[in-house]
Specification:
The chain is of the alpha/beta class. It has eight helices and 14 strands. The longest helix is centred in the last third of the chain and has 21 residues.
């Protein structure tokens, strides 16, 4: 009997399947036809598994978590849940073996932020982040659940922006979030393909996040700290500092590059997903609970999207 089950068989599920195959892990796939046809026979096979990957649409996560969390390790795609009352349930239960896949924490920028003291950049003062990809312009996406307001109420905000929002919250702690601006430029479905939101951090730094499924492919991060700068533009990361950089006359100059990293943004995402899966499987292998910072940061990010 396989000890790993994957719920769902969509794009993200297939990514997970590919990773598990490379890791030589056996698994079964469960996908009900619809709510009325739960396929109880095959679901019993899922219940016999000790490790569950929930890769079904967001609105289905909560019911699967409720049914399967008993003494099982669960890897659940973000967003964890889609209703405040469901989120309150997760807070009350304080589940110790559930891991929410905010894999942006494992991107190269996540590695840098994990070792931020190494670069002596000091406190963050301001950040602006732009991430865009034009999939809403494709005809085949008109019936995709991502552009259905019932299945994905906040569209690109709860699919893409939440990853970035979570990364910022994980490393810096968000104090306040303004109500996001949600727009549909493409008229693909009735969901939102574009969003913009402003955050205030615990230290009062400001962060702006713009995400779109209708703009050309582009990735841009500008993180300004009191003693340096981190800039990401598509496939390049550059760290500059310190603030007190002067020319021969004593005038301020743009800080020199301390580190420059060339990378593939697409590969970076793929690798971050692999690292996230391996991180989870190692916890399963050693029968260790998920660190509380991961769990509570995930719920905080979930709350900010739902409020």
């Amino acid at each position: 009997m396989n000890k790993i089950a994957i719920i769902g068989n969509g794009i993200q599920s297939k990514r997970i399947q590919k990773i598990l195959k490379k890791l030589k892990k056996e698994f079964l796939i469960y996908k009900p036809i619809n709510k009325k046809n739960e396929d109880k026979k095959n679901f019993k096979l899922v219940e016999k598994c000790k490790i569950i990957f929930i890769c079904s649409p967001d609105v289905t996560h909560f019911e699967y978590i409720k049914k399967l969390n008993h003494n099982r390790f669960i890897f659940c795609e973000k967003i964890p849940v889609t209703k405040i009352k469901e989120l309150n349930y997760l807070k009350k239960k304080n589940l110790k073996k559930i891991y929410f896949n905010y894999n942006f924490r494992f991107l190269k920028i996540g590695e840098i932020l994990s070792n931020i003291k190494k670069y002596k950049l000091g406190k963050m003062l301001y950040t602006t982040i732009v991430t865009t990809k034009g999939i809403a312009g494709k005809k085949e996406y008109k019936k995709n659940w991502r552009f259905n307001k019932k299945k994905c109420p906040k569209g690109v905000f709860q699919i893409i922006s939440i990853h970035i929002l979570d990364l910022i919250n994980f490393f810096f702690q968000i104090k306040k979030m303004q109500k996001p601006t949600l727009l549909n430029f493409s008229k693909t479905g009735d969901g939102f393909d574009t969003s913009e939101v402003k955050l205030k951090l615990k230290n009062n730094a400001i962060v702006n996040i713009f995400s779109s499924y209708y703009a050309p492919l582009f990735k841009y991060w500008l993180m300004i700290f009191e003693n340096g700068i981190i800039k990401i533009e598509n496939d390049n990361i550059e760290i500059k500092g310190p603030r007190n950089t002067f020319d021969k006359k004593g005038n301020f100059e743009v800080p020199k590059s301390m580190k420059s990293i060339k990378f593939s943004a697409k590969k970076d995402f793929d690798v971050s997903l692999v690292k996230s899966v391996i991180y989870f499987l190692n916890k399963c292998k050693n029968n260790k609970t998920i660190p509380r910072h991961h769990y509570w940061s995930s719920l905080k990010s979930n709350f900010l999207v739902l409020k």
